[in-house]
Amino acid sequence: QVQLVESGGGLVQAGDSLRLSCAASGRTFSSNLFSRCEMAWFRQAPGKDREFVARISWSGGTPTYADSVKGRFTISRDSAKNTIFLQINSLKPEDTAIYYCAWRSSSLAAYTFWGQGTQVTVSS
Length: 124
Description:
This protein is mostly beta strands. It has no helices and eleven strands. The strands form two sheets. Strands 2, 4, 5, 6, 9, 10 and 11 form a seven-stranded mixed beta sheet that branches. It has a four-stranded antiparallel beta sheet with strand order 1-3-8-7, with no helix packed on it. Strand 9 (97-105) and strand 10 (113-114) form a beta hairpin.
């Protein structure tokens, strides 16, 4: 089991920046599987489907971003703290959503563990 806890959301104005955090814990992180997993951020705006935002492999490599966030969002990780981050710059009202952290084993296609989400609201 993997537990994911997001934080860092809030009410901000357009143009502001936020850094979201997702702390991971669980038995998986004390095993060899730790180095063979991938974590990601998704978001779900009101009335819309959940969409992919960014992902990062725990073993390294180039992160992947949705086209809609390239240049403004940066995903990173702190391996020592089992935490990933999402730096969001130049926030726009259309970034308003619940942001979710997700985890999957690199050998699987689907993300199998999800956090509870953190709300980001951007006022114009």
